Amino acid sequence: MDRYTKQTIMKGVLWASALITISFLVIIIGFIVYKGAPAISWEFLTEAPRRSGRLGGIFPAIVGTIYLAGLAVLVATPIGVGGALFLTEFSKESKFTRFIRFGADTLNGVPSIIFGLFGFAFLVYYMGFGISILSGGLTLAFMILPTVFRTAEEAIRAVPRWDKEGSYALGATKLQTIWHVVLPQSISGIVTGIILGLGRAAGETAPIIFTAAILNPVLPESIMQPTMALPAHLYTLTSEGISMQNAFGTALVLIVIVLVFNMLVSLIRKKKALRR
Amino acid sequence: MARRLSEDMVKGILGICAIFSIIIIFLIIIFLFREGLEAFSYTNVIDFVFGREWNPSKETFGAAAFIVSSLLVTVGAIVIAVPIGLLTAIFLAELSPQRVREIVKPAIELLAGIPSVIFGLFGLIVIVKYIRITLDQPTGESILAGSIILAIMILPTIISISEDSLRQVPRAYKEGSLALGATHWESIARIIVPSASSGIMASIILGVGRAIGETMAVVLVVGNVEKLPTSFFDSGEPLTSTILLEMGEAAVGSPHYYSIFALGILLFLIVMVLNIVSNVWLGRGLKRG
After folding, report:
1. Could you tell me where the beta strands, DSSP code E, fall in chain A?
2. Does ipTM surpass 0.85 in this model?
3. What pLDDT is attached to residue B289?
4. What is the pLDDT of residues B55-80, one digit of tens each?
5. Are A87 and B18 in contact (CB under 8 A)?
6. Domains and CATH numbers, chain B
7. Chain A, window 97-126: residues with a beta carbon less than 8 angstroms from a chain B beta carbon
8. Could you tell me which CATH number the domain at A42-275 has?
9. Which of B103, B219, B243 sits opposite A117 (nearest CB)?
């Protein structure tokens, strides 16, 4: 075979594999939308489930997911941004900073089911928080911490040196410079990390199934109570074959949430790219 | 003086934030091992890892079937995902027009963001059914179904890290090869891909780690039969599935409970070793490049 014919064939193969990759996404989302849309109605979104989710809606699961993901972000954001500030503003590149980054990467690689086991042994049992929003939210916070941390670090590192130096030249202290120059300039990057974390926390099942989730269609009244959550509800509906239609409806709601978060992130990135 | 003091205080607080990840890892290790090591006072390690029978009611805990299932599902996923992922990465780094890239990149990011339980639902309704009906198998809930769904899930990991390392190959390598009369494809296959091989290896190892640790997508499609699988069409039950399915029924402090944590230790160790190996490969590529 001629080398140029071979090249043409191989380029065709490269195009084809990119197309296959994209088609996975299109097929999965298309399928969930197609199967889930018939289940969606005002009642489905605003009512509690009846008969273990066979009938009724998913309102308590939506609320529960907001509580869990919200708590996770509330806890992970200050720690993540604080850690990022420490790395970028308060320390020089050293073995220690590499160790910190290695720690975050390692935590990022821990399987979600291990977070579930850990959350149960440490938070539910040892700390005595019980199966609760607190236990689930904290478990999720630990899981998304590396995402928030590394994105914030990248954003803060991108702040130009001369801006900081200008601030120092005007007599500002380090803390003033961080508060008035570094953080405002990196806020869009930090927010990107928070939204990414929010999306991940909303979609994870394994970490909350032992620590927070139950199939009880009442709204939680405090952070010490367990709650329903979208991904866990979806898992129960599917694995026990309770109602495939409602499972697809729940999946559609979950996928819309993830899509919205994704769009927000790319919007922020685009805006930032335009400003430069 | 006061300024110095408050700055030091802030530095201290931020320092604690910075080492928080490491604190959590230590806590995970402590609690996983505290509960899991207890299992080895009932079953010795060899019997636990190689034992064929897992029967909580008889207090027999042999995890071989779970380990083999985990390995098979992962091997299958890699065999499917590596060619597609690597070729897509090459496409993005070398061939893609900017406008196509602007569609493909966000699509891959989105694929990475889809919750795993949704992959499971899709796998159960589409892939399992396909295997049962079209491939005419007694059950579609199989290792193969798990491998396919995992392959789709780890594609983004393999693509993004491979693409990054392909892009880090110095331009001069490619230009030199083209100047010597090689075609673009020959330059890709003989020069660019081999130069990026350590990054590509790192992406694959990371993909293995993701696949072996994934729970929700797999548990819905593999059938969960506690039997040693012998083919890709057999049902199986990976480590993650067992932990998920049996945690609810095990009484805290029972041998069963401890044994589930011991499975957790096994999984944790496997994934940590893979992550560290992947990091080393990635570092090696950076140093050379």
Report:
1. 49-50, 55-56
2. yes
3. 41
4. 888 888 999 999 999 999 999 999 99
5. yes
6. 45-288 (1.10.3720.10)
7. 99-100, 102-107, 109-118, 120-122, 125-126
8. 1.10.3720.10
9. B243
